[in-house]
Design a protein that fits this description.
This protein has 369 residues and is of the alpha/beta class. The chain has twelve helices and twelve strands. Bound molecules: nicotinamide-adenine-dinucleotide (NAD).
Length: 369
């Protein structure tokens, strides 16, 4: 086990690590298939110049837990292509197609979009090897960002968690940090439930109105390429001020670690539902729990996208995707919060235990685990 390639091995995986090198086209890529006990691994293809094997492995493991927690018949994997995603389109297409051919023989990995790749790239992968998820509508895809799959799941999680936090979504005051694919749609689905959006932010600033912001007007502002602070309504806040906004539910939907030990004390919300990946640090989650603030972990609350991808892969419709996201995220949120309450542990600890149990149970049913 002292060989460098085996340094990540533990009882769950990884099953396969593939290094791809095609000098003639400049392709350097790594695929990590972590665990396939529940079924073929689904995980994104990340394109960036500074990715590493370690990052790829950690992301693959995160997908093993996320897919297991979501109750999908899929294991976890991830791949990285060492390249600048802003390259010329023809060059990118050639590179992605070469990557697809290299991973083609690894039949238990299904590629999806991630940072630096998109639905068009997934169409190229499918064209080459016949499998990928997150496809354009024209080739049988369910465009998960366009329909708001992840934001929809975040609101389903929030509705279940509201009961545990003594809240009612109707009339609940919500703040959303990050008004992109996840945050914008979450705000829309919250509004449909009768919640009031009191603050929203993007990379340029925050707009705040305790009386409630016009969610549709905000979406139109973003569609025009402007920023939330360009909305004529409301007061404008700068920096991290949205963290301390007076509200009932706080939704991180942007960057990692936006709530940390040094600013967790400013949080006024009773409930945080994590749209962003690792939006709240583990230390902050523990501090918030001490104060009775419930945090629904990222891989429980933001699984809407991968659930949608799985429905797409199995030939389902958009309506089936919404129904599956709703059922799975509601059931998982309730199970995690029940376990946390019963055992007096953090929701994240409960979620990791739940996912680990599911992976190990599936491994027990397979010849090779
Ligand atoms: P996106 O790029 O569409 O939107 C991100 C938004 O965050 C933008 O509005 C941007 O302006 C804003 N932002 C960036 N820095 C900010 C800051 N410092 N303060 C406030 N806002 C800031 O990205 P997305 O797809 O909506 O993803 C958001 C998060 O959700 C990421 O952590 C992502 O990994 C996670 N996530 C996304 C999906 C999905 O389906 N898109 C699924 C699971 C998890």
């Amino acid at each position: 086990m002292s060989e460098p390639g085996f340094r990540f091995c533990d009882d769950l995986g990884p099953k396969t690590i593939l290094h791809c090198h095609r000098p003639s086209i400049g392709l350097k890529a790594i695929l990590v298939v972590d665990n396939v006990a529940a079924g073929p691994a689904i995980g994104g293809v990340r394109m960036a110049p500074d990715v590493t094997l370690e990052e790829c492995f950690r992301l693959a493991r995160a997908m093993t837990f996320k897919n297991a927690a979501a109750g999908l018949p899929h294991g976890g994997g991830k791949s990285v292509i060492f390249a600048d995603p802003a390259m010329d389109r023809a060059q990118k297409e050639a590179l992605v197609r070469a990557f697809a051919c290299a991973i083609g023989p690894i039949g238990d990995y299904i590629a999806g979009p991630d940072m630096g790749t998109d639905e068009t790239a997934m169409a190229w992968v499918k064209d080459e090897i016949g499998r990928s998820v997150g496809l354009p509508r024209e080739v049988g895809g369910i465009p998960l960002d366009e329909i708001g799959a992840t934001g929809f799941g975040v609101v389903a999680a929030a509705e279940v968690a509201s009961d545990y936090a003594g809240l009612d979504l109707k009339g609940a005051r919500v703040a959303v940090q990050g008004f992109g694919s996840v945050g914008r749609h979450a705000a829309r689905f919250f509004a449909e439930k009768g919640a009031i959006l009191v603050a929203a932010s993007d990379s340029r600033g925050t707009v705040h109105d305790p009386a409630g912001l016009d969610v549709e007007a905000l979406s139109i502002v973003k569609e025009h390429g402007d920023h939330v602070a360009d909305l004529p309504q409301g007061e404008k806040l700068v920096g991290d001020a949205i963290v301390g906004v007076d509200c009932d539910i706080w939704i991180p939907a942007a960057r990692p670690d936006v709530i940390r030990a040094d600013n967790a004390g400013a949080v006024k919300a009773k409930l945080i539902v994590q749209g962003a990946n690792i939006g709240v640090s583990e230390e902050a989650e523990a501090m918030l729990a001490e104060r009775g603030v419930i945090c629904v972990p990222d891989f429980i609350a933001n699984a809407g996208g991968v659930i949608c991808a799985s429905v797409e892969y199995h030939g389902g419709t958009e309506a089936q995707a919404f129904q599956t996201i709703d059922e799975k995220i509601r059931a998982n949120t309730a199970e995690v919060l029940d376990r946390a309450k019963r055992n007096d542990i953090l929701p994240r600890t409960a979620a990791v235990a739940m996912a680990g149990e599911r992976v190990r149970k599936a491994m027990g049913l397979r010849r090779w685990g």
